[in-house]
Amino acid sequence: MLLDLTGLKDETGYIKVETSVNPENITFLGRKIKMPLDFRLSLDIFGEEKEIVFAGDLKGEFLLECSRCLKEFKKDVNAELEFTIEREEIEDYSSVDVGEHVKENLILAIPIKALCRKDCQGICSSCGQNLNKGSCECVQDSVDPRLEKLEQFYNSGNE
Q: InterPro entries recorded for this chain (predicted)?
């Protein structure tokens, strides 16, 4: 994603950029992240003697899958960006590519465990029923086989 820097006529200039971006091919933990709409990018760009400073934010939404119930849901994102690029790294002073910086900040905004809501009940491990929509008829009193002896000891009344 190229940004026009022609507004930074001298080394200590300032420009504000507002545009929409839609980074492609963002994957996180092996899953491709869907973005139904473009993100809104707002950047303040400050020219300094040896570097160019970028500060701003990204606003938009991800389409994620809930880690508990597997339902797809929208997650609002408001990610802050702040990075610098050395002037020596810029070949053409009229534009600079900030695509990787935008992508990095979007990846950092993705929750590791995405939940459609805080009190999501998930799905039944036996029948697959979405427990947010109703309870299931499965018997839930099965004990981990590694703990059966402990349960027998507890139920026998021994202390």
A: YceD
- Centre a 10 Å sphere on the Cβ of residue 84 and count the other Cβ atoms it contains: 15
What DSSP assignment string belongs to 66-129? -TTT--EEEEEEEEEEEEEEEGGG-SSTTEEE-HHHHHHHHHHTS-SS--SSTT---B-TTT--
d(CA 30, CA 61): 19
pLDDT digits (tens, 9 = 90+) for 86-111: 877 776 667 788 888 888 998 899 99
The token duo for 63 is 């389409």
Backbone dihedral region for residue 5 (phi beyond 0: left; psi -120 to 50: alpha; all else: beta) = alpha
